[in-house]
Amino acid sequence: MSIHGDRAYAAFMQGFNCAQSVAVAFAPELGLSEEQVLRLASGFGAGVGRLREVCGAFGGVVLVLGALYGNTDPAGKTATYARVQELAARYKARNGGGSIVCRELLGLKQAEGSPVASARTAEYYKKRPCPQLVRLAADILEEYIRENQPAGPCGPAHGKGEDDETV
Asked: Where are the domains of the chain?
């Protein structure tokens, strides 16, 4: 467990969605206010807008990753995609579901078909792995950042670098 994992877990337990919870845990590193980060991540929750597609916790990881290491030149796409894929592999390996798809992690055959958020009740928390998944996603991202120190408060202005391939 990590400081960021604890922050993400606490945010989720306060009612924020999974993407918001992970992303807001890294607000200081992003040089943004918590309000700004919560707004940026708000649509990524519940598998992007409750569509149950890409897990919102992982979506929060991608948002932070882009802010810290993302490219500003189209030639840097490969390096960005490689980082996302590396973190997706770590998340899949450790989340108990082997997936980054929300509905698969929740054991759903399909999305509920409604944009209405589920009420946060004691029963909700018993049935959902989400609090643990936001903690795990933030833990993995913290580990990655420690291993790959970004430059500056929002990471490198990464366009085409010497390690990038042309796409």
From this structure: 3-147
